[in-house]
UniProtKB/TrEMBL annotation:
The keyword Magnesium does not apply. One of its GO terms (cellular component) is exodeoxyribonuclease VII complex. This is Exodeoxyribonuclease VII small subunit. Belongs to the XseB family. One of its GO terms (biological process) is DNA catabolic process. Pfam families: Exonuc_VII_S (PF02609). One of its GO terms (molecular function) is exodeoxyribonuclease VII activity. Keywords: Coiled coil, Cytoplasm, Exonuclease, Hydrolase, Nuclease.
Length: 63
């Protein structure tokens, strides 16, 4: 996956969900979009987990 930000990943994921829900994808495109959505979800989850750990460390250092 190319270097993207969390915000970019979230926007792309929202666009994929909209396209799926609106029924504008054919079966071939659907497979690719679901695969990409899976990659984006994994990226976002990793980013959120890393951010949570960093924030927790900062809060622990303050206390």
């Amino acid at each position: 996956m190319k270097k993207i930000t969390y915000t970019e990943a979230k926007k792309e994921l929202e666009a994929i969900v909209f396209a799926i829900e609106s029924g504008e994808l054919d079966v071939d495109a659907l497979t690719e979009k679901v695969k990409r959505a899976s990659e984006l979800i994994a990226f976002c989850k990793e980013k959120l987990t890393k951010t949570d750990k960093e924030l927790q460390k900062i809060l622990d250092d303050i206390a």
